[in-house]
Write a structure and sequence with these properties.
Length: about 55
């Protein structure tokens, strides 16, 4: 079972990508979409900083 924090960050990242797709279809500007994407990259980095998989 993954830690709850991991699941939350994973779900949040999926939701944020869905929001980018919706915003793009709705005609958001390039700058608005890039701002959303940079917020998502913060999720990527937060999760990678907190979780490491080690091969046995
Ligand atoms: C909820 C946690 C989580 C989020 C959010 C997340 N990742 Fe990861 N990611 C992982 C884990 C865990 C690994 C495996 C790390 C390891 O092997 O130590 C990984 C590995 C990777 C790897 C392979 C790295 C390697 O050395 O093999 C890439 C590339 C990657 N992630 C990209 C992304 C990108 C891009 C995003 C954001 C869009 C993202 N990840 C968001 C958990 C996450």
């Amino acid at each position: 079972m993954m830690p709850p924090q991991f699941m939350l960050l994973a779900a949040d990242t999926h939701q944020r990508f869905d929001a980018v797709a919706t915003a793009a279809k709705a005609g958001s500007t390039r700058s608005e979409l890039l701002t959303m994407l940079s917020d998502i990259v913060a999720n990527c980095m937060a999760c990678h900083a907190a979780n490491r998989l080690e091969a046995p």
